[in-house]
Design brief:
Layout: H1 3-18, H2 25-32, H3 36-42, H4 46-65, H5 75-92, H6 94-103, H7 111-120, H8 122-133, H9 142-162, H10 170-184
Helix pairs in contact: 1-2, 1-6, 4-5, 4-7, 5-6, 5-9, 8-9, 9-10
Amino acid sequence: MDKKTNIFRAALKLFIQNGFDRTPTVMISREAGVATGTLFHYFKTKEELINNLYLMCKDSLLITMMKGIDEEKTYRGKIKRVYLNFLQWGCENTDEFLFFQQFYNSPYIREMTREEGRNRFSALFDLLREGVEREILKNVDVEYLLAIITGILNAQLHYCIANSHLQRDQAFLERSFSFIWDSVKA
């Protein structure tokens, strides 16, 4: 594993445990097994590290969420694939999910970083826009639609993390998907 990856992993772990303010860069360096100067070689400030970590987590989520949607034959199947992929990602990357949950509204995350994160999700916005245009989904603003879906996804993922036996329970997954589908379908 390279030094930059070690820094990301250490920062993720420590930010979740301690928060941004109670995680000095020296602690991150020690946890990563690198000199503090090495950390600052990759990231000029702790804020830059935080913002890069945020985008790294976003990329990880996006790659997983979009897997296999082109293979789905129906629009509902595509949305369900995104849902199942999200749950899989969150269960396999719980620290990254908790990082998002804990720090989404943090002042450390720059608006420019948030915008870049949103831009990276353009394929998901396009998928929702298609559903609205085809009158499959409710005729509402796509950002609002995503906010509703995200709220339900986050709640369901918290539940799945706390009840790990449900993560592969097909009956539960089908019922839980219906909460999202019934909330947004036209």
